Amino acid sequence: MVSFRVPLWIPAAFLAPALLGLLVFRLGPILIALVGGFTGTTLRGDTVYVGLRNYADLAEDPTFWSSIRVTLLFNLIVNPFQICCAMGLALLVLRPTRGVALFRAAYLLPMTVSIALTSVIWSILLEPSVGPVNGLLRALGLPPQPFFRSENQSLATLILVCTWKGAGYWMIFLLAGLLAIPRELHEAAAIDGAGSWQRFLRITLPLMRRPLAFVLVADTAINFLLFAPVYVITHGGPAGSTALLMFEAYQAAFAFLNHGRSLAISTVILAIIGVIAVLELRLFRAAHERAE
Amino acid sequence: MTKIARRGLGRLGLAAGAAATLGGGAARAQTPTTLKVIWMGWPDNQVNPLMEWFEKRNPSIKLAVEKIPFNQIFQTIEVRLQARNADPDIFICDSPLTASYGARGHLMDLTPHLDASRFAKSALAASTYDGKLASAPFGSSMQVMFYNKALFKEAGVAPPPADVAQRWTWEKTVEAARKLTDAAKGQWGYAFEQSERPYQLLPLGQSLGGVALSPDGFKATGFIDSPAFVEAYTWMQRLYTDWKVSPQGQFDPNIPVEMFGNGKIAMLVAGTFSVATLQQRFPNLDFGVAPIPYFEKGKPVTPTGAWHFAINPRTRNQAQTLTFLNDFMTEELHSLWFKLRPYPPVLKSIWDSEKATFDTDMWRIVRHELDNTALPRPATPGFREYEDLVRVALRDIQTGADVKTALSGAAQRIDREMQKYR
Amino acid sequence: MTPAPAGRLVLGALRYAAMVVVAAVLLLPIWWILVSAVRPGSEIFRYASDVGWRTLVPEQLTLEHVRTMLGSDMPRAVFNSMVVSLTTVAAGTMINAAAGFAFAVFAFPFKRALFAFVLLTFMMPFEAIVIPLYTLIRTLDWTNTYAALIVPDLANGLVVFLFRQFFLGIPREIYEAARVDGASWWTIFLRLTMPLSGPTIATAALMQFIHQWDAFFWPLVAASTPELIVVQVAIARNITLEQANWGGLFASASTAILLAMIPFLLLQRYFIRTVTASPDK
User: Fold this and answer.
1) Same domain assignment for residues B185 and B163
2) Per residue in A179-211, pLDDT tens?
3) Same domain, B329 and B278
4) What is the CATH number of the domain that holds A223?
5) What is the pLDDT of residue C77?
6) What is the dihedral sign for C-alpha C170, C176, C180, C186?
7) What tens digit of pLDDT does each residue of C219-256 get?
8) Surface-to-core class of residue B367, CB atoms within 10 Å of its CB (0-12 exposed, 13-18 middle, 19+ buried)
9) Measured between alpha carbons, how far is residue C86 from residues A26, C81, C162, C219 in Å?
10) What ipTM was estimated for this complex?
11) For residue B32, is the peptide bond before it cis, meaning its omega torsion is within 30 degrees of 0?
12) With CB atoms 3.0 to 4.6 Å apart as the test, which of A280, B91, B395, C107 could cross-link to A3 if both were Cys?
């Protein structure tokens, strides 16, 4: 561990600009939003204190619980899946041989398509009757698929679309981590007779725990907060199969004009991400303590 | 200066006088005032000329116009209005949201400033909340059935007549659609433009005598899930799952128009604005128009309603916003607007002043529908909630859900959301 | 066991084959966007479902959409988004790196609590804080200014977290040696930590750039005058419920995608091994 003991003003000076910005433009509004979870809006648009009623309403609402289930299922799959894909890509383009720069750029390209545009494009590509993907399936003699329009395929399709956009993005962070591992460690292990899989497990993974912890926590937060594709493509359907919590929060605020409920859902989302992030950080710290 | 302009300025004088007592414009009349206007993100060439026309007439008023993309416009206006201050001065308002904004105190009462006798009946109905004119009608809407003449000829089917007296029934439409569908070629007989929106689909149930929402605007159970709607949407579902004459799961309203343009859909019920798209993008397409069909045992019902604009009651520039209102209700501006974007006019006089333009099958049908069959969407402060939940149910029905269950489920959720307005 | 030269060749070939296949899967949708930007409007959906070579190769090329786009507010939007994104990257990277450095290197009271606070800031849905944030910006009288678009996003909890994680990997001995030489912490941060962190800075810069380049809802709320239009808003304005200008959509989307690649291409050279203690180098 690094942690130098220095006069307080030194860390304070390093922290001040960022923490001040976060305090004013994030924490302040967040506190207002948290308080807002205990309020309701009257017909005239006035805000009134309602205690725990928004939360009690959520607890009794089957759509809320079904949305929790969908959200957890989605995240349980999408986060590990994206990170495995990202790790695969990072290892693939790690060695800077001829033309690799081009492939790195290519894998990053989907990330430059904004999430709103990603939604529009994939909604067209996966359109059941005129979409090119089904056109391709037909050309290959395979039956066309409903994708987003089927209760059974919608969530899986959503995960694949998110991974299309996200894999290259997270690849970059993992690549940065892999590049920080001294090559000598690998070379020494190779001389000791370790195979490449063993070297990956014994050297790469332990040294990648901090980048991985970052990617895992960041990916979890981003995926829990995702809703644009749901808003644009599925609207939570079919039959609630893609009704992510964040979409419910968004709808509560902007379609149902029930800001108290929306802020209560947002608070629940914040709490879930917080708990999962702590667990994820613990997981990586434990791994590192075992390693040392 | 034209006669109309002078009349406009006369009224401005009165309004400015009234506002002076509020500590408003008179003192600042010399320096230009800027009005903040939130407008729909229509293409620049359909918005800027209107605003330039206004600024030229009123050198003392500048307009800061924010053109918001359609997908975000309700959300953006919502955040801005929630802050409950003087910003924006004027905002575009989807007509069925009049009651929602009105109930929450976001609309200035325009009754003293609008001459109701100048407007079409349906436009007035959509702008009225709590007995007052709360939003200013700016453009109406209507749908017609477009059909591809070549595909009809090829299938040997006689096309639907443009005459409203010989309007096709839905039963006959399906019969034709089945002959016009060719799965191997990816060709579909029939499609709705907005295949998941209450705007287009409520008239199906209404055609069978259904009432979409209780008259007081707060109860959906027993209305949207009544037998008329169940029957209508069961029929609609069969288009996709049974007869397979319509492309299933095509919820993006812009795609069916492209498919019609490419000869992959034979009949399309779509908004009048699609004419421009079809004519510009597909100049070789030979298409005809017919009125919207109706159920054999029911009556013809068509959708309407469109864009209004509203004034923020908290504006600090009341005199100038009233000038805006006044000028944007002139015949001169409306005929300019109609040329830029041909929505069915809300000012009755435009039908006469643009006679030559309206001398087509489509406009004859539109005028008849607006006078006889058009039914605005239900007036309720909870329209956003209502529309959204019905939309989700209509999507599920199209992709195969049980009709009655989907509608009842939506109705219960609507009733729950409506409680906050009681 | 190092593979024999022949085995290494096969492995290398397999690696390139895999890279090509992955690239094809990831890039085909983008190719479709780019191609649609230079196709006549009537052709865009014509070959969408009858997949063949025409789906991917336009028969007729047209610059119509590109020309229309250049005459629209897209150039203005590109300029604005560039100003906002680059300013955020320039100022934000420094601010967030400094905070990440403090979390990684120093011991100080309430460190865990402050770090938890940093993490908290990126876990709250933005839509939940947009109304208070807008009220704040109005109070500051920043509506319709670049400041409204830039300042709230300079400090970024995710980026602080990123820097902290990667700075933790720098061994303590390096700092100790520098302290013995009498370097101040500011000098150490600027002259030692930052130069050792090329890939980290590059990823942080990209992250902030993309975050601002993709900004959509906040600009609409806080600064939506025509003068301050941003890229994503200009793109989205091509689509309404009533009409879609597909050509315009794809032309502006292509522009946004290709321009967003520039920072990566510029930063690409930093994606190399930085920590090398190898004696032969």
Assistant:
1) yes
2) 888 777 777 877 787 788 888 888 888 889 899
3) no
4) 1.10.3720.10
5) 96
6) positive
7) 998 988 889 999 999 999 888 877 888 999 999 999 99
8) middle
9) 21, 8, 19, 16
10) 0.91
11) no
12) C107
Q: Are B6 and B292 in contact (CB under 8 A)?
A: no
**Which token pair is A132?**
């090119």
**Angle subtended by helix axes C198-213 and A154-179, to nearest 10:** 150
How many structural domains are present in chain A? 1
Q: Find, in chain C, the residue whose alpha carbon is nearest to that of A213.
A: C165
The confidence band for B15, taking pLDDT boundaries of 50, 70 and 90, is very low
Model confidence pLDDT, tens digit, residues C161-174: 999 999 998 888 88
Structural domain containing residue A245: 51-182+195-291
CATH assignment, C68-270:
1.10.3720.10
How far is the C-alpha of B289 from the C-alpha of A44, rounded, in Å? 45
Residues in chain A with CB shorter than 8 Å from the CB of B250 are 127-130
| C117–chain A Cβ distance below 8 A for any pair | yes
SS3 A48: strand
HEC-encoded secondary structure of B49-113: HHHHHHHHHCCCEEEEEEEECHHHHHHHHHHHHHCCCCCCCEEEEEHHHHHHHHHCCCCCCCHHH
Q: What is the DSSP letter of B377?
A: P
Which of B334, B318, B349 shows the shortest CA–CA distance to B113?
A: B318
Confidence of residue B30 (pLDDT cuts 50, 70, 90): low
pTM of the model: 0.90
Specify which residues B68 forms β-bridges with. Answer: B40
Structure tokens at C176: 């100790």
| Spatial separation of the C-alpha atoms in residues B6 and C127, rounded to whole Å | 47
Q: Which residues contact B354 (CB under 8 A, 6 or more apart)?
A: B335, B338, B345
CB atoms within 10 A of CB C41: 22
In chain B, residues with a C-beta closer than 8 Å to the C-beta of C220 are 66, 68-69, 72, 76
Residue pair B183/C49 in contact (Cβ under 8 Å)? The answer is no
Same domain, B236 and B332: no
At residue C273, the 3 state secondary structure works out as: coil
For chain C, what is the radius of gyration of the CA atoms?
A: 24
The rounded distance, in Å, linking the Cα atoms of A73 and A91 is: 28
Q: Give the residue range(s) of CATH 1.10.3720.10 domains in chain C.
A: 68-270
Q: Which of B259, B248, B201, B251 is nearest to B228 (CA)?
A: B201
- Enter the tokens of residue B218: 């707060």
Q: What is the pLDDT of residues C100-115, one digit of tens each?
A: 999 999 999 999 999 9
Number of domains chain B is built from: 2
The string over B205-234, giving b where at least 16 C-beta atoms fall within 10 Å of a residue's C-beta and e elsewhere, is: bbbbbbebbbeebbbbeebbbbebbbbbbe
Residue to substitute from C123, C235, C259, interface A, most A β-carbons within 10 A? C123
Our CA-based measurement puts residue A149 at a distance from the nearest CA of chain B, in whole angstroms, of 6
Do strands B287-290 and B128-129 pair parallel, antiparallel, or not at all (unpaired)? unpaired
**Which tokens sit at B267?**
């009949």
C35 touches chain A (CB under 8 A): no
Contact assignment for B40 to C240 by CB distance below 8 Å: yes
Chain C residues closer than 8 Å to A105 by CB: 261, 264-265, 268
A59's tokens: 């607890």
Domain residues for the domain of B275 are 143-302+379-421
Residue that the structure tokens 């009655």 belong to = B404
Helices (H), chain A: 9-22, 28-36, 53-60, 62-92, 100-108, 115-125, 132-139, 154-179, 183-191, 196-199, 205-207, 209-224, 228-229, 245-254, 259-291
Would A125 be classed as within a structural domain?
yes
Cis peptide before A238 (omega within 30 of 0): yes
Phi, psi dihedrals of residue B26, rounded to the nearest 5°: -55, -45
